[in-house]
Amino acid sequence: MKNILETERLVLREFIIEDVAFVIQLVNTPTWIEFIGDRNIKTETAAQDYIENSLMKSYATNGFGLWLMKLKETSKPIGMCGLVKRDTLEDVDIGFALLPEYGRKGYTFEAAKATLNYAKDTLNIQKIVAITDTKNAASIGLLNKIGLQFEKELQLSEDDTVLLFS
Questions:
Q1: CA atoms 13, 16, 22, 27: torsion sign
Q2: Can you say whether the dihedral through the CA atoms of 58, 10, 6, 22 is positive or negative?
Q3: By percentage, how much of the chain surpasses pLDDT 70?
Q4: Which residue, 69, 67, 65, 80, is CA-closest to 27?
């Protein structure tokens, strides 16, 4: 298990197979399903597949990915934050998701700001973008707060329009 970042209240680390229960919990929250989409990860097998073939594969291929966000004091996992290299985007983008009960406490801002600094200072990635659902006001507000500006609307697929920030 590799720790990537520490902030005042959080530790961001790579996901491991043992995180299956947390992954199932996080990807099935109402906000994840509404704004990120239903990934159909309802079983331990599906969660393990997602961890191995998406999250861990990104660490191996890109040297970065989405990391588990946990509280420093209790080690309780509360969300994910990190960097994604998508086939559909030219640049690396920042992504985040949080269990609803930990929202509005500044955790995602703390993790996202540290992730941006890490991308620039450690990984030497000069341009970071973000995509978010057109109706996700909380996400749009956070992207502005960490210094990203709205650039354009993007059509990812026939029924998926997102806002691009950079």
A1: positive
A2: negative
A3: 100
A4: 80
Burial class (CB in 10 A: 0-12, 13-18, 19+), 127: exposed
Q: Which fold has domain 3-165?
A: Aminopeptidase (3.40.630)
Higher pLDDT, 41 or 159: 41
pLDDT at 12: 98
When pLDDT is averaged across residues 161-166 and rounded to a whole number, the result is 90
Give dist(CA 129, CA 114) in Å, integer.
15
The most distant pair of C-alpha atoms in the chain lies apart, rounded to whole Å, by 44
Burial (CB count <10 Å: 0-12, 13-18, 19+), residue 150: middle
DSSP 8-state code for residue 91: S
Give per-residue burial for 31-60: e unless 16+ CB within 10 Å, then b. Answer: bbeebbeeeebeeeebbbebbeeebbebbe
Residue tagged 């990807």 (tokens): 27
For residue 88, pLDDT over 90 is answered with: no
The answer to whether 28 and 83 have CB atoms below 8 angstroms apart is no
